[in-house]
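Bit of a strange request maybe. I'm writing a small parser for structure token strings and I need a real example to test against, not something I typed by hand. Could someone generate the tokens for this chain?
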Amino acid sequence: MNRNAEYSAVNDAVRGEFFRRVWKLITPYWRSEEKGMAWLLLVSVIALSLFSVAISVMINSWYKDFYNALQEKDLAAFTHLILYFCGIATVAILGAVYRLYLTQMLTIRWRRWLTEQHFTQWLSHKNYYQLEQHGYTDNPDQRLSEDLNSFTTSTLSLALGLIRTVVSLVSFSIILWGVSGSIELFGITIPGYMFWAALVYAVVGSWLTHKIGQRLIKLSNQQERYEADLRFALVRVRENAESIAFSNGEPNENKRLSARFGMIWSNYWNVMKVSKRLTFFTAGYSQIATVFAFVVASPRYFSGSIELGGLMQINSAFGNVQENFSWFIEAYTTLASWRATCDRLLSFRQGMADNEARTSTIKLDRDGDGLHFDNLALNLADGRELLAGANLNIVRGDRVMLSGRSGSGKSTLLRALGGLWSDGLGSVKLPAERYLFLPQRPYLPIGTLREALSYPQAPEAYPVERFAQVLETCRLMHLVPRLDESDHWQRMLSPGEQQRVAFSRALLYAPSWLYLDEATSAMDEEDEAVLYQALIDELPGVTLLSIGHRSSLKRFHRRHLRIDGGQLREQSHPEVVV
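Reply from user aminoacidic:
Good idea to test on real output. This should exercise your parser:
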């Protein structure tokens, strides 16, 4: 895993780049094809948020009249004010419900758009493959699901909360300034002194909150990564359950999983310690704020300058101003989590951008009339040379077998043909015809067997009766009744059956060029012979390039190549099946 990539966003913040990069993540949706509905929803939510501020201002004025009515024991005024409050409360409830509903609607629409955009980018330029191979970033599944969800939810929540806070702050600051009067301190008259008291109280509290809780950003980032690492390790156990069971590897896996969870445990304890200190402060801050306004305003009340209603209005206005000034304190934990989420998304996007910016030193041309290598060299990431100076011509209809010792570069050569390997030199000219790769471990998507057979095409691309035909040809007659059954086929079928499904797929797809990477390694020689003969008989003129070790494969190929000592050498022609 590339830790430098993981913390690149944090380093960018030091250079003043963090918010610029986040802005580039936020803004595309609001300029997209959905911008009309997006802005309509956003304006509606903002309007309802401002409406809630107006309701709060009305309730603040209500406080003054209500407590004055209580003080004067005015039953008529009391009854009127209760009914008035019921009306305000009803309207406030409706506004709150629809503000939440429209906010959720906007959030899920934004998340859907962002997710689709990231799906497209992740699946383009082979990013999903290269990110794993080159260690650009870890746990892309977490970035695409949890982080995008958290990003949209938190961004809207924080942005709308900040807008509401600013408007509320202005509104209640005006009220507080007007009702708090002035005070003389050290011979200096301070107008609107309650406003200044709220400002000082909140500024000091915000600064102390940041000093106490700033470690939460890094700890939150680490916690999410450790949780994702554990989930990935658990999935690995499920995927390789049979191999682990045969090896009696349970103690080893237990040790590995416990080590992963140990990192979660250790980091979470650090989160707890910081959160405890932060909660001590914020809880105390909130409790003191409850009586702070009464203490500061009490001299004017006891001197008779204001009545009980005025005191309660001052307390309400002070509470709102202080709360708005303290928005940073209340939102600090959310901000820390949002920052960690942004860091992970930015590093993920940077990893994809870095991969897309990589230039292959192997020149690929897909407009040829055959397969041609010109002085092709293949290197490993550490610079070690696998293949040097390879020259080869394969024309349409050739059947070529490629062999060599394990680790000699046979599969790497196929990766280069598929555009998955870029470390090397020379040029490759590929045929501009229909082709298909059959790897040693074929991919069978979860779904119906018909969908697994037709992948990557839709089942509708082939006649219904053709599916049964290819299964019978590939000795999978027992699967014909299950064509429309949905299952996890890579778990249900044996490795040999999976490889026969891959051959069935090749017969369906009918490519002109077929590349096979030990595609019969899990079969017996009889099945292997039947399937290769089926390719030759049912796909006349097909070009085969097969990687294999068995001598039994030679008779199905007209040419035999071998990688030996970093050189691609042509062997004597084996006896072939016409």
